[in-house]
């Protein structure tokens, strides 16, 4: 087994990390500039970090339009990236010029949000409206934390009150150009005591 130093210039730490930390859900982030120009971009460094208050986080690798807009307006939305929309998600990662609306360029419809100005992807089955909580400068990336102020879920993907994985069909990022498609789902009850583990 190799023992690699991530600070070694001959070691591509980004390639190793994005190949090991998999699969990664995708935050399809919609923002508006201070002038009102739309921006839509996928970010695969994304997760939930708090339930009360509800907070999600994504990392901007470099200072791109998404980060600039969030800092200017303090609002954004996160739409779910799904298998039927995968090509659109990928296309919105293209390096469009500043001020160009990616959703318009790739033929997506945007729906108005309830509590924030940036719209959400109308074709996506679920979306989160967020207001900026804080940012953390981490070097080559900036961590953006957003408090969720509204949740949108299409009734067609709901089962037993909550969004259903199979119906949503989310996609995720792997290393390099690889993506993960929805696959088999299994269920495991969390142990309620050490005795539950010992019993196995």
UniProtKB/TrEMBL annotation:
Q: Name one Pfam family in it.
A: Flavin_Reduct
Q: Sorted alphabetically, which SUPFAM superfamilies does this protein's record hold?
A: FMN-binding split barrel (SSF50475)
Q: Which cofactor does it need?
A: FMN
Q: Which family does it belong to?
A: Belongs to the flavoredoxin family.
InterPro entries per the record?
A: Flavin_Rdtase-like_dom, Split_barrel_FMN-bd
Flavin reductase like domain mapped to chain residues: 19-164
Keywords (A to Z) from UniProt = Flavoprotein, FMN
Q: Which domain of life is it from?
A: Bacteria
Protein name as catalogued: Flavin reductase family protein
């Amino acid at each position: 087994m190799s023992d690699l130093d991530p600070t070694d210039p001959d070691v591509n730490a980004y390639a190793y990390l994005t190949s090991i930390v998999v699969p990664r859900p995708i935050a399809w982030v919609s923002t508006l500039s201070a002038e009102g120009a739309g921006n839509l971009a996928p970010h695969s460094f994304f997760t939930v970090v708090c339930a009360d208050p509800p907070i999600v986080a994504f990392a901007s690798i470099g200072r791109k339009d998404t980060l600039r807009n969030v800092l200017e307006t303090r609002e954004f939305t996160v739409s779910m990236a799904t298998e039927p929309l995968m090509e659109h998600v990928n296309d919105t990662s293209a390096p469009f010029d500043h001020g160009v609306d990616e959703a318009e360029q790739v033929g997506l419809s945007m729906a108005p949000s309830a509590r924030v100005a940036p719209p959400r992807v109308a074709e996506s089955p679920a979306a989160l409206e967020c207001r900026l909580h804080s940012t953390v400068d981490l070097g080559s990336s900036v961590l953006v934390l957003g408090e969720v102020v509204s949740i949108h879920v299409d009734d067609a993907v709901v089962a037993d009150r909550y969004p259903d994985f199979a119906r949503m069909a989310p996609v995720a990022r792997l290393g390099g150009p690889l993506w993960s498609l929805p696959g088999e789902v299994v269920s495991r009850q969390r142990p309620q005591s050490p005795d539950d583990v010992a019993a196995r």
